[in-house]
Design brief:
The protein is mainly β. 0% of the residues lie in helices and 51% in strands. The strands form six sheets. The chain has a six-stranded parallel beta sheet with strand order 1-6-11-16-21-28, with no helix packed on it. A six-stranded parallel beta sheet has the order 2-7-12-17-22-29, with no helix packed on it. A five-stranded parallel beta sheet has the order 3-8-13-18-23, with no helix packed on it.
Length: 174
């Protein structure tokens, strides 16, 4: 519990790390709440977000305003969370998000639940890309036990511009 505190100007250069953010990984029993990141930046990594690289836990009432810079070959890049497999509620991201195959203003990839959250930063994806103002891709998943996890987004929005930096022969529009 961050108790409403903020961390200002944090800079993370994770060029030799695969999962990057203030918290690289939050497991299924983990909770991050009532914390904010202002300014700063995150760069490098394969799965990356300003607050969390890979979230399988619960994120509540948290935010990030910094810039996230992934390479064009980074797997998932998000303004708050790179890949969400857990729950995000009442949270937001306002910084620019750049690079990545799957790139989103709040989360690069959502395989969990997002509610009452938003993103306002501009999103620029890499060469071969899925890009979105809120999430780059919202993806149902099939677990090994045959159970399907349905990804959902409710009462959430995005206002930033979305663009894809692409090679002329590799653009796909979905």
């Amino acid at each position: 519990n961050g108790n409403g505190n903020t961390i200002s100007g944090l800079t993370i250069n994770a060029s030799s790390t695969s999962v990057a953010g203030l918290f690289g990984f939050v497991g299924s029993g983990g909770t991050v709440k009532n914390v904010g990141l202002t300014g700063g930046s995150v760069s490098g990594g394969v799965i990356m977000g300003d607050l969390i690289g890979l979230n399988a836990g619960t994120v509540t009432n948290s935010y990030a305003t910094g810039t996230v810079n992934g390479s064009a070959s980074a797997a998932t890049v998000g303004g708050l969370i790179g890949t969400n497999e857990g729950v995000i509620t009442g949270s937001y991201a306002t910084g620019a998000v750049n690079g990545g195959i799957v790139t989103g203003g709040l989360a690069g990839s959502n395989e969990g639940t997002i509610s009452q959250s938003y993103a306002t930063g501009n999103v620029t994806a890499g060469d071969v890309a899925f890009a979105g103002g809120l999430v780059g891709i919202n993806l149902n998943t099939l677990h090994g036990n045959g159970h399907v996890v349905v990804a959902s987004i409710t009462n959430s929005y995005a206002t930033g511009n979305v663009s894809v930096a692409y090679a002329a022969d590799s653009l796909s529009v979905w």
